[in-house]
Write a structure and sequence with these properties.
The protein is α/β, with parallel strands linked by helices. It has two domains: 214 residues, Aldehyde Dehydrogenase, Chain A, domain 1, CATH 3.40.605; 129 residues, 3-Layer(aba) Sandwich (Aldehyde Dehydrogenase, Chain A, domain 2), CATH 3.40.309.10. It has twelve helices and 13 strands. Strands 7-6-5-8-9 form a five-stranded parallel β-sheet, sandwiched between helices. Strand 12 and strand 13 form a beta hairpin. Helix 11 runs parallel beside helix 12.
Length: 367
């Protein structure tokens, strides 16, 4: 597995990172396990709060730097990257501010004399995706570290600089070594880490295929697992909905993060045939106004998709849909420019993720 920064807007390879050796992986797990057993689980909540608040401040005070890394590595529009950095900072603050309440011992009225006392379990292996490089880490790391667990993070191979920068936040915040560790591991090494006795639990955000593989290996070792896998969310326009608002909502729901979101609107269903035809026409026009450009430019509304592989997958999906009889009303071809961009068909030259062509072809009125 190669960890590389490839700028999606240019296709340029900007930086590469070596995969960790087996010895280095073993050392990282040992340091994390020792930190948990001897330091972090015994640390007072106030100390954990201090570290977490400092990491949150590190994000807030350097929004431009961290946002630029996101945009450079996976092509997110710069304003959206800035929002992600601020959201990630807010998540760290949220758990720091509420940790004492969340971790307080609670009496169980239905069982007099019994109490519920939260206890940490150990090293958590977090396997996270590229589409929200900071948020995906923050939402896992913040609650786990505040609970007294430690985290070893394995990020996606196309956002290595974001992975390094997130780890550096906790180093600068004064976290003891092993509290949060970034590893550039291969798939085989990740499997070995899941089964390692020093790892107590695993969390993954990704595809169903990846989830099944991780859960199978974790299950053999009786490890706790938390999965967030893909979805196929419908956008349903009922017969009393304001059509203008519905089109605007569908545009955002499908195009947020250039369509690369597990909660994005994957299918559009419009109630009423005439309303469906009108919705399709207005939605198509709105899509054709999505002009492609440099995601670092604040005026750009449509950036590239995250990688060459992502682009090829989208184009293949459109080809398959066409072969099955779908009518692609716009989108579905690659732009003749550097980077990983798709464009509208018919010579319009507008950038449009190919997946939209499939969505539109399936968004005919449903009565």
């Amino acid at each position: 597995m190669t960890y590389r920064t490839i700028n999606p807007s240019s296709g340029e390879v900007m930086q590469s990172f070596d995969t960790i050796s087996d010895a280095e992986l073993g050392h990282a797990l040992e340091v994390a396990h020792s930190c948990f057993e001897n330091v972090w689980r015994k640390s007072p909540i106030a100390q954990r709060v201090t570290v977490m608040k400092a990491a949150a401040a590190g994000l807030r005070d350097n929004v431009a730097k961290h946002a630029a890394l996101i945009t450079t590595e996976m092509g997110k529009l710069i304003a959206t990257s800035e929002s992600e950095v601020m959201l990630s900072s807010a998540i760290l603050d949220y758990y720091a501010d509420r940790a004492e309440h969340f971790l307080a011992t609670k009496e169980l009225p239905e069982s007099p004399g019994a109490v519920l006392k939260p206890e940490p379990i150990g090293v958590i292996l977090a396997i996270e995706p590229w589409n929200f490089p900071y948020y995906q880490l923050a939402r896992v790391v913040a609650p786990q570290l505040m609970a007294g667990n430690v985290v070893v993070g394995k990020h996606a191979q196309n956002v290595p600089q974001c992975a390094v920068a997130f780890a550096e936040l906790f180093e600068r915040a004064g976290a003891p070594e092993g509290v949060y560790t970034n590893i550039f591991a291969s798939i085989e090494q990740v499997g070995n880490a899941i089964e390692d006795r020093r790892v107590a639990g695993v969390t993954l955000t990704g595809s169903e295929r990846a989830g099944a593989a991780v859960a199978e290996r974790a299950g053999r070792s009786l490890k706790k697992v938390v999965m967030e896998l893909g979805g196929s969310d419908p956008f349903i326009v009922l017969d009393d909905a304001d059509l203008e608002q519905a089109v605007a909502g569908a545009l955002f729901g499908r195009m947020f993060n250039t369509g690369q979101s597990c909660v994005g609107s994957k299918r559009i269903i419009v109630i009423g045939r005439d309303r469906g035809e009108k919705f399709l026409a207005e939605f198509t026009a709105a899509m054709q106004n999505q002009k492609p450009g440099d995601p670092m430019d604040p005026n750009t509304v449509l950036g590239p998709v995250s990688s060459e592989q992502a682009l090829e997958t989208l184009l293949a999906q459109v080809s398959e849909a066409r072969a099955a009889g779908a009518r692609v009303v716009t989108g579905g071809d690659r732009i003749d420019r550097d980077g990983f961009y798709t464009c509208a068909s018919g010579g319009l030259g507008h950038g449009l993720p190919a997946a939209i062509g499939i969505a539109l072809a399936r968004s005919r009125a449903r009565v």
